[in-house]
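Reviewers of the previous submission asked for a worked example of the structure-prediction workflow described in the proposal, so we include one complete record here. The input consisted solely of the amino acid sequence. No template or homolog information was supplied to the procedure at any stage.
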Amino acid sequence: MGRTSDARERLIETAKTKFYASSYHALGVNEICRAAGVNKGSFYHFFETKRDLVLAVIDEHSCALQAWFDQTRASKGTLTEKVQRILSLCTQELQESQRDDQGVKGCPCGNLALELSTQDERVRLKLQEVFSRFEQGFEAMLRDAANAGEVIVDDPRKTARSLVAVLEGLMLMAKVQDDPTVLRQHESVVTGLLAGSERAMPNSN
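From that input alone, the workflow returned the following structure tokens.
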């Protein structure tokens, strides 16, 4: 059997990098194909349109996000420590994005949401799935902590949504300020949400 082509994966990886560094509308299929080393015929074999490619890119981001939360949730530590690990992963991504000397690029899905969510309903719904997964990751950790008797959380879902909103806002600020350390500088804001949603466990003594 011949070697399985990796053209689809190269197109997705190239588009992921290009969309992150620039924007969806600034890139054409020809430019993506050239950068990926894939001919245009192969592009249309895998994707009917550029929109189908961006949907695949969003799926890739979603899978990476799920891996972050699965690994963090399974690790040892308190709820606050686990949330801090997610903050560290976000900070690392911002630092990676800055290494090409084009500045901090923010959240990949946040960027696409700002650019496309009012223009393409299918893309908006796909991005909504990603942010829902983000919220579910935090919610699961909150519920784990509550079930373990670590905290009492009044509304895990609401707190998880607030965490995502604050993180997305901080990543946008990091992009505007071209400073990947913004998340660390405002870590207390994020952990403050946990403190605000938790009630102390009753003393068992």
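Residues 200-205 have pLDDT under 50 and may be disordered. We consider this example representative of the routine output the project will generate in years two and three.
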